[in-house]
From TrEMBL:
<keyword id="KW-0472">Membrane</keyword>
<keyword id="KW-0201">Cytochrome c-type biogenesis</keyword>
<keyword id="KW-1133">Transmembrane helix</keyword>
<dbReference type="InterPro" id="IPR002541">
    <property type="entry name" value="Cyt_c_assembly"/>
</dbReference>
<dbReference type="GO" id="GO:0020037">
    <property type="term" value="F:heme binding"/>
</dbReference>
<feature type="transmembrane region" description="Helical">
    <location>
        <begin position="43"/>
        <end position="63"/>
    </location>
</feature>
<dbReference type="InterPro" id="IPR045062">
    <property type="entry name" value="Cyt_c_biogenesis_CcsA/CcmC"/>
</dbReference>
<feature type="transmembrane region" description="Helical">
    <location>
        <begin position="130"/>
        <end position="157"/>
    </location>
</feature>
<feature type="transmembrane region" description="Helical">
    <location>
        <begin position="250"/>
        <end position="271"/>
    </location>
</feature>
<feature type="transmembrane region" description="Helical">
    <location>
        <begin position="184"/>
        <end position="207"/>
    </location>
</feature>
<dbReference type="GO" id="GO:0005886">
    <property type="term" value="C:plasma membrane"/>
</dbReference>
<feature type="transmembrane region" description="Helical">
    <location>
        <begin position="100"/>
        <end position="118"/>
    </location>
</feature>
<feature type="transmembrane region" description="Helical">
    <location>
        <begin position="75"/>
        <end position="93"/>
    </location>
</feature>
<dbReference type="GO" id="GO:0017004">
    <property type="term" value="P:cytochrome complex assembly"/>
</dbReference>
<dbReference type="Pfam" id="PF01578">
    <property type="entry name" value="Cytochrom_C_asm"/>
</dbReference>
<feature type="domain" description="Cytochrome c assembly protein">
    <location>
        <begin position="70"/>
        <end position="266"/>
    </location>
</feature>
<keyword id="KW-0812">Transmembrane</keyword>
Length: 300
């Protein structure tokens, strides 16, 4: 847990402030492009992401492992990957309308994540193993990709609604065509699915070799939800091969799949299960927050 007056905390606070400014400029640029400069919004999001990454790098150096040892770290790490992927797609495909949908959501969750700073839920197992790295990194990247596919689904349904209502205003003109959004939904799901598969396979190897989840590791809630997530997106990709499964149908199923992703990500963490975060660890606080003078460290 981080001292609210520590420089590390201020790094993330600066990122949040920049994200707030970016959200205002992103949404404003859709409706009043003459007032809200897209160039300035690009500056806000890139600078905010830089501070966000700097925060995670410092935390990672302090802990000596991935910045996911607490629920707060995991949340901020996940949010950083969403921003990073959305920025890449924004400039790769010239999608100026992507970040206006992404950043208000990321900003809201970033502000909410500050409430987790003093949360005492922390991981209780060693993160410095190859299989755990091979398990976590692909999973987080896969979750970020599925999040962007969820955003594209929202954009698709929004654009479809604009067409049905024949509301051809600034929002309609700023959004890509339905065909483009349908293709982007497909691409992000196609990106996220192999990453999810790699993460689950590596996690299976790790669980069996370390025996940290016991002999019945496959009954662990997070394992079960992860398998359900895999089945949902595997079904989407399979059904996509059919000519009739596209557009609105894909968007709706993708949104449902994303709900399961969120449950998989935060559900077991809040259950105090072995595969999530348990109470009682103060490792993060000891490593980052300065210890008050006159208080000796107690070694277990």
């Amino acid at each position: 847990m981080i001292n609210l007056l520590s420089p590390i905390q201020y790094i993330f606070i600066v990122a949040i402030v920049l994200y707030i400014l970016d959200s205002v400029w992103e949404v404003g640029s859709l409706f009043r492009p003459g007032t809200f400069s897209k160039r300035l919004s690009n500056y806000f999001i890139l600078t905010g992401l830089s501070f966000h990454c700097a925060f995670l790098i410092v935390v990672s150096i302090r802990s000596g492992t991935l910045p996911i040892t607490t629920l707060f770290e995991s949340s901020t790490f996940y949010l950083s990957l969403i921003v990073l992927l959305s920025v890449i797609l924004k400039f790769l495909y010239r999608l100026q309308s992507l970040t206006p949908f992404v950043m208000p959501i990321v900003t809201g969750f970033s502000i909410a994540s500050v409430a987790l700073v003093r949360n005492d839920l922390a991981l209780t197992y060693n993160l410095k193993t190859f299989w755990l790295f091979a398990h976590i990194i692909p999973l987080f990247l896969g979750y970020a990709s599925f999040t962007i596919s969820f955003i594209f689904s929202i954009m698709y349904l929004t654009q479809e609604r604009q067409l049905k209502k024949k509301s051809f205003g600034p929002l309609f003109e700023s959004l890509p065509s339905l065909e483009t959004l349908d293709a982007l939904m497909w691409k992000t799901i196609t990106l996220g699915f192999p990453l999810l598969t790699i993460g689950l396979v590596a996690g299976t190897v790790w669980a069996k070799t370390s025996n940290i989840l016991g002999l019945l590791w496959y009954l662990d809630p997070k394992v079960t939800l992860g398998a359900l997530t895999w089945l949902i997106y595997a079904a989407i990709l399979h059904l996509r091969l059919g000519a009739s499964f596209h557009g609105t149908k894909v968007a709706i199923v993708t949104i449902a799949g994303f709900v399961v992703v969120i449950l998989t990500f935060i559900g077991p963490f809040l259950m105090g299960h072995k595969h999530g975060y348990e109470k009682g660890s103060v490792k993060f606080e000891q490593e980052i927050a300065p210890e008050p003078p006159g208080i000796a460290k107690v070694k277990s």
